[in-house]
Structure formats: C-alpha cells, structure tokens
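Journal club side-thread
Mid-discussion, someone asked how the predicted structure for our own chain would compare to the paper's figures. Pasting it here so we can look after the session.
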Amino acid sequence: MNIIFSTTRQWNPGDEIILFGCISALRQAGLAFNPVIYNRSPQIRHKNKAHRLLAQLSRQNRYFRDNSFKDDTDLRFADMVVFAGTPEWRGRRLTSLYRGILEYKLPTLFLGIGTNRPFSFSHEHFSDDEMAVLKQARLITCRDELTAKSLAPLPTHCIPCPALLSCQTPPPRCSVRRLGLIFGSDRAVRHNNVSADIFRYLDTLYRALMQRHGREWEIELVAHYIDELPHAVEAFPGIPLRYSYDARDYAEIYGRYDLVVGHRVHGIGVAASQGIPGISISHDARGDTTRGFGARIVTPQTAVEEVCALVEDMAKDISACSSELIAHKQTVSDSYQSLLRSALRDFGAEVPSADRGHSFDTGFAASAV
C-alpha cells in the first residue's frame, strides 16, 4: 500500500513525533505500506500572495522539489490519506490534498487532530471539499474534547494524541537521576516561540529547580528549534543542552531523563511514550493535549514554589507515576487498535500475533541509557 500522511518535515519535531505514533499504530494494526508525506511546512507551503505564483509553478514541477506530495502529483498510486494530528488539519495549506482526495476517491483517517480555538462544522469554518472529506472519513480521533464537540454531528472518538505510541516502552523508572527541562525562547520564529512573559516564567522556574536539585540530580535543557540554541547557551551557560535536527533523535534525548518539565506538548509526549512522567506548563489551548500523556498540568500563573513542590512530590513517587503511565499507554494503544481494525477491515490488515505485544517498530525506539 501507499499511504499519504499529512505532516511537516524539518519544521516542528512534534509533528513528526505524532507521525511516528500514527505509523506505529497502523503497522501494529497489521498494515504494510510505503509512507508518503504531504509536507505542509510553512517553508514549503506559504499562505501569502507572493508565493501563490510559486505554487502555480510547482504544479508544473518547476519550483516544488521537496521529496513530498506536489500539487500536480498523479494520485493513482495512493491507497489512503492519513491526517497525522496537530491543529492544522484543514485550511489553505491543505487545499490541494483535499482536492486530490475527492478526485481520486481516497479513503481517509484523521488521527489525533486538535484545535487551539472553538469552531463549528459548518461552511463558516470549512470549505466544501473539507466538509465532504470529513463526512466520508473512515475514522476521526480527536486529542481534545473541544475538537470532538466542535465536529458534531460527525462521529468522533476522543482519545490521546498518537504521539503517546511513538516509542518502545522500557521498564518503569525507579528513581530520579536526571531531570529534563524543555527550553523555550521568545526570540524564535512565530509558532516555535513563546512570549516574553512565558520565557521569564520558564527562566525563573528552571533556575529555582537548578538551585534546589543541581547537586543531587543531573539537570539538562532540551531545545526543539534551531533559534533556541544561542538563547539557551546565553541564558544558561554551562548547563548541558540537547538538540537534534532529526526528530527521530528525540526518543533517545528524552529517554535520558526520569522526569521532564516544560511547555512543549510533544516533548512531554515523547517522554510519556517511554514511561517518563512530565509536568506540562500549559501556556495556550494546546496544553490540554498533555492530559492524554498523563502529565500534571500547571500554568504560568502557578507559583514557582508550587511547581517545585510538585516536582519533588513526583520524584518521591516516581516508580508509581511511571508504572501508571505505562499502563495508561497500553490502554490507549488497545483503544487505537480496536478503532483501526474496525476502520480498516477491508484493507487486508493482519491481526498481529500475541507475541508481538505492543512494541512498535518505527525506527523511533528509545535506546537504553
């Protein structure tokens, strides 16, 4: 089979982590396929007028040379389209994909989609093509209740983001030796940055945690975007900093830690996939997604002393927290498998043998650290 996945590449590793979880779930459901991507990265698919001319050229293969779906791609090779989570699963960047789905009558799955604002399933918020595709979708899972309610009367299932399924599951953590702090910068580009107020909150919190626990734990920073690197080195000189251009490396990066604190939704998610508990600093509507990762949620209005106390309480009970998280992941995996096997009944998916369990083979497995 050839499956087209709506995702981004080299923009936000969180999108790719969701993709890895979707691929894991589909292969666990017994599908064998070639993954093809529709790259909706803003570097590839722009919304402004200046680039619409380039988009027209791309339809003649004169401009668009990314190794992904082009606007003039002949979709007769495709068997299915999967919208791999995140809040951007509709809109101008996806126009040609929706058009192609309808033209070639391709079945679709929407896995772990979310929103950062209320909407209604109406022409006020959706194009004709988008409404037609969603009405015909074989399966729609939503990572938050707001999305599920907003899509009514479509049949949806509220279930955690598939990023929870992105990694293999190691044994539970039994003590805290390393603490991972997710760095955020107000100097990064839009959609990969935080506000100045959020940066100050993270900065104050992280300094407090380093002062309290820097001698007993190894404390490291994790960056997700290139613009964060110079800022992190400036703000925290001498503190180890982990980053990679390759989203696949984040399994090993987060696999180093026993507890994670930060604002990046899918940093918390890729840690949770490995049974590593997290404290999510929810600074916008997307933060609610981390409930599905079993995270403790705080906000920038939560006192720093209160968050430090929460870190200490979780550290004392880390074995139970980690075990509960692994059990939660198993439950979520079982739910995805039930839904997918029902939706893919006529695709020849083979039911996995009992000894395969829930070890996902995506090439995104955590190394032992």
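Post-session note: The mean pLDDT is 91.
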